[in-house]
Amino acid sequence: MVSPEQQQIYDALAQQRGHQKQVDRVLKVVLPIAAFLLCVICANLNVWSTLLTFVMMWISFYATAIKRWPLWHWALAILVFCLIDNILSYGTFNSSGFSRQFGTMFIFLGVFGVGRRYFDRWLMKKSI
């Protein structure tokens, strides 16, 4: 038999799960758009860099904001991707291109990865 306090906890968890699904639906639309806009800004000046930067950003945003995988794994993956992309695009290491690309990708990865948790909390407080 379920006590009233347990039922309140179950109801709150069900409400939280519903809010998280709602945020997931919104982010599934917002993340690819944000990844596209940011890849145009921060990719190195060739087609393959733009395309692969878009794919990398979309996957990392999805993994950190929706799947909630560890942020530092994806920061490390972005670091390795930016190093490889920089060397392949310029033929040698270009520090200004690297700092522009990695800085933009890292900042927005943090915004989506860390911000998701705060947005969930804000939505729960708003509904109570």
Automatic annotation (TrEMBL):
Superkingdom as given in the UniProt entry: Bacteria
Q: Which UniProt keywords apply?
A: Membrane, Transmembrane, Transmembrane helix
List where the protein spans the membrane. 33-59, 71-90, 102-119
> What protein is this chain from?
Uncharacterized protein
Species, as recorded: Acinetobacter cumulans
